[in-house]
Amino acid sequence: MNAFIIGYYAFLIAASCLAAYLGKKQVFLLVFTMTLASFLMGIIGGEKALWAVTIGAGILLLAAGTSYAFREFIVVLLPENGAKVMRTAPLTASFGLFVIMVYAIAGIFSPLIAPFGESEVITQAFAPADETMLLGADQLGRDMFSRIVYGARNTVGIALLATTLAFVLGAFTGLVAATKGGILDQALSRAVDVIMSIPSLIFSLLLLSIFGTSTTVLIIIIAIIFAPRVFRLTRAVAGDVVVMDYIEAARLRGEGMWYLIRKEILPNSKAPLIAEFGLEFCFVFLLVAGLSFLGLGIQPPTADWGSMVRENATLISYGETTPLIPAGAIALLTVSVNFVVDWMLYRSSGLKD
Question: Which pLDDT value is given to residue 236?
């Protein structure tokens, strides 16, 4: 038994005893559970398993510290009301906001951050990383780091545009259908049923093969595919609102449909719609990356995370993890957006602990 293993268990046991002495029950349960799990993992996996646990715990502590520091930074910058709201944000939401900010900076300032051009060939295929190429080169000799940075602009930007268009179409038609009712409601609902009955991936592949794979066509097709989901939720939420007494009172005052939607229905439906926008973005983002992986999404030489995984997948056979970096970027943004959406939904819906 070497010094690392002795120090590892000594630290966990000491931390458990200190937490118990200070009366921190949750901390004690967490640390002592980790101690028991470490004993089991040490028996099965040996020192390598303990190193993996140590590295994982270190990454979690680093993420928690970064989230806390970023939250305090935002609190200092915001005015009093905004600072009060941000001070109550959980660390998960702070982490999500931090990741979103980093992605936004990378996308907006990608020409300044990337050391090379988006499709610039600078070396031989699959050249290893060096002082000028942090992640090495891809199958054509282009800088992987530069293409990942540009991918933040292309992949995220297209997903955001498609989500916004889908949300506008779905929310607008859903509010109109719930407010007007009758034949219009039935017609829109049946059209939505037809679109939703077709699997989104198959539907998108079919439409892209017919109309082409340009960026404009891609955004419109994805918006058409995901707008019915927004329509269904908006219609259901607005349908519960339009039967309220204050809606009937507004109608008796002679208020028109657009007034009811803007002033009465939409403000009282914002909580689930906020959550739906974040969820829609995640689904659209994953679909864009998936279509690019299949070769029908964002087309070369435009940098895109999904196509980068496909183009460099052969490196995995040689023990290289470079193709996993764009896949990790996709997963990280998806999780971060969900963290922020959960917090916004919690605040908007008035939930209490």
Answer: 86
